[in-house]
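Example record used in the benchmark description.
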Amino acid sequence: MREIDVLGKACPIPVIETKKALRENPDEREFEILVDNEVATENLRKMANELRIDSKVEKLEERKYKVTLEKTDQSRDHKEIEDYSVNQATSENYVVIVNSDKIGDGDPEFSKQILEGFIYSVTEQDHLPVEMIFYNRGVFLTSENEKTIEDLKNLEKRGVRIYSCGLCLDHYGKKDDLAVGEITNMYKIVEAMRSNHAIYPC
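Model output (structure tokens):
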């Protein structure tokens, strides 16, 4: 039996890590995956159903679940498992796109506080975004604003990928100040928008 511990990781990471284990261990028939949220259990079961792999979910304690997958003679072959796209199991994925350091055109300080509240509210969601992407003045939230940086670091620890536009960081002289996440480019930003449901708070 192969055990995969993805406690604290938001989807699609549990599905990605499980598919990786299936791919790298073709002769293994049984896998146990530990996760801490129901969304991950649902996505893992969806992948298992599509690959014709038996699945069972057991709640061990509050925010701790064990998903057992068992390959059978009816399961799809190894090539089909390798070709499987995790997007099929995580169709409810979403990304948050932030292109400003405030929400709306009202009082500037108040508008910044609203956006800080929005970022904090994301940390409180049961279903976290796959990625959060910051461009234009949004990069100030990953390089200058201490409140949002702290919240984004919390999200990053829970598996949310944080990206900031490199061109934008250069333009505003903030590249050396980036405090959370990684640098990306506009091609990757467009790809993320195209591949996932996107939320734009600004």
